[in-house]
Write a structure and sequence with these properties.
The chain is globular and about 80 Å long. It folds into two domains: 227 residues, no CATH class; 152 residues, Nutrient germinant receptor protein C, domain 3 (GMP Synthetase, Chain A, domain 3). Strands 1, 2, 3, 4, 5, 6, 7, 8 and 9 form a nine-stranded mixed β-sheet that branches. Strands 10, 11, 12, 13 and 14 form a five-stranded mixed β-sheet that branches. Helix 8 packs across helix 9. It is an alpha/beta fold. The protein is built from 13 helices and 14 strands.
């Protein structure tokens, strides 16, 4: 009898496990691939908190076999409305969007710099995570212009579909180190930790003639990269956040320096040019990556701490327009090695000094190395890494460069014989 009761109970439970009651067909859904957040015009709202929300929807027709690679009118899938927050804006948008809106495939949240510099930004982002469709791996891009303008003027080249564009450009930009990883999860972890700075991707709309003179490849902010043709949108550099509020910007070069000092970040394919030590007119192009993790040691003492940092770097020399044969001359190779070490150390030290003087905190996650030195969280919080110690710390940086190769062809052409 007991056996029969068990079988009946199991059959009854099976009826409750069927989960098709809330099923939605794909043709009933409208998937958001980008969300834009802006401060609304003061004349359009009262004293209550509000935000201009821009939704960019994926066009399911583009996934049909034989469909054209690009939409005839992409702006038809972009809408902007004013709402108390971007979660409730989802239902408001259904007053004119025919399908149920979903955030489950959203790749980015684009935030205007104007909003990012207010206390409202973190309130909107933090509260949004209660919506189960908002993924923590969604990336944040901060733009100089309005987010709605950034999304509308984003015209992917090579007929790349918009829902693939954000995924491709973010992945590639992070690999090169020109922008940092800036997921919502990382923002919350760093901000709630109340010790370090959060770096978000910096984006902007480039102008045809921005008046910026030629610089080295990574010394630009978004919008200032000199270019002609192609997509107007640029991603380079980072926006600096402290306690959930934007306080400044870093160039592409400073962002790369920050990532080299941070063991929680990843750089897979960084190309950098350094001054040729033997020919002032030329640069040497190199592929740079960290050999192992950056070594960070925090020493406590009376007064500010001492922070010793050692950055192990592997360099592959790819191009030397001066035609100097560094590969076969060990003496000149040593000169090049010391020059690269000197430039790297100078860049890293300059960034650390700026974070101490201007930001009063660091984006390298070095607080992780200070916390184990205390017996309790309360003792660590009383010591106060951000306000009382890091800005005044004695930071010693050492760079260890190892030249591991010279590209596919080691020997340079002899220009005298070529000209002869």
């Amino acid at each position: 009898m007991s056996y029969i009761k068990t079988i009946i109970l199991g059959l009854v439970i099976l009826f409750f496990l069927t989960g098709c009651w809330d099923r939605k067909e794909l043709e009933q859904m409208s998937y958001t691939i980008a969300i834009g957040l802006d401060l609304p015009d003061k004349n359009d709202v009262d004293e209550k908190q509000a935000v201009d929300v821009t939704f960019q929807f994926a066009n399911p027709k583009l996934n049909i076999k034989g469909a054209p690679g690009q939409e005839e009118d992409p702006d038809r899938n972009i809408v902007t409305l004013t709402a108390p927050d971007f979660v409730t804006a989802k239902n408001m948008a259904n007053s004119f969007v025919t399908r149920q809106i979903s955030f489950s495939h959203a790749k980015v949240i684009v935030v205007s710099e104007e909003l990012a510099r207010t206390d409202s930004f973190y309130r909107f982002i933090g509260a949004a995570l209660k919506e189960r469709e908002v993924r923590r791996e969604t990336n944040i891009i901060v733009t100089k212009e309005k987010a709605s303008e950034f999304i509308r003027k984003n015209k992917p080249e090579s007929q790349i579909r918009a829902h693939k564009y954000y995924q491709f450009i973010i992945d590639r930009s992070v690999e090169t180190g020109l922008v940092p990883e800036s997921s919502i999860n990382r923002l919350l972890a760093i901000t709630d930790g109340d010790a370090d700075l959060f770096l978000a991707m910096n984006g902007s709309i480039g102008k045809k003639d921005n008046g910026v003179k030629f610089k080295e490849e990574d010394q630009y902010l978004a919008g200032s990269v000199p270019k002609k043709g192609g997509n107007m949108v640029q991603l380079i550099g980072s926006a600096v956040f402290k306690e959930g509020k934007m306080i400044g910007k870093l160039t592409g070069e400073e962002t790369r320096s920050a990532l080299l000092l941070d063991n929680t970040s990843r750089i897979e394919d960084m190309y950098v040019s350094y001054q040729d030590p033997l020919y002032e007119k030329y640069m040497v192009a190199c592929r740079v990556k960290k050999k192992t993790a950056t070594k960070v040691k925090v020493k406590l003492r009376k007064g500010p701490p001492v922070i010793n940092v050692m950055v192990p770097i592997e360099v592959e020399v790819l191009s030397a327009p001066s035609m100097e044969n560094y590969a076969e001359n060990l003496e000149k190779q040593l000169i090049l090695k010391k020059k690269i070490e000197s430039e790297l150390k100078e860049n890293l030290s300059a960034l650390v000094k700026r974070t101490q003087d201007e930001f009063k905190s660091e984006p390298f996650y070095w607080s992780l190395y200070a916390r184990p030195l205390f017996s309790s969280v309360k003792e660590y919080e009383k010591w106060d890494w951000t306000n009382k110690n890091y800005p005044f710390a004695n930071v010693n940086i050492k760079v260890d460069v190892e030249i591991v190769g010279f590209g596919k062809q080691m020997k340079e052409s002899e220009m005298e014989k070529v000209r002869d």
